[in-house]
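Consider a typical record:
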Amino acid sequence: MSTPDSTTVQAAGCVLWRRSPTDGALEVCLVHRPKYDDWSHPKGKLKRAEDALAGALREVAEETGYGAEPGSELPAVHYYAHGRPKRVRYWAAEATDGGFTPNTEVDRILWLSPAAARDRLTQHRDRTLVDSLLSALRLA
């Protein structure tokens, strides 16, 4: 097993989903970060020696207030942030319990249909993760 490049920022997150409490339809959670004024999946940098899945679930809890049951690992996303390469590993994760409270990092969340979530995401690279979620859940 190879070790990640030490110059690459390692991060992890989840494509968080649930069944709508009103009609049972699939909903995807997006977070709004006021610092960047963007809509994204919950994610963040890993702490030193932190397991990627543990970090992904920690970020979901910190950013959304929800616990999550992880499912399939989804494709990683690679991009440059502040001049450094960044790798974000993602998992499909079903929201289990909890509730959102606005904080300095995330001021709003939305539960949207997959199509609406795809349209709302700020970064195009995040949109394919919605399709990956549907495939992982065998709904594509």
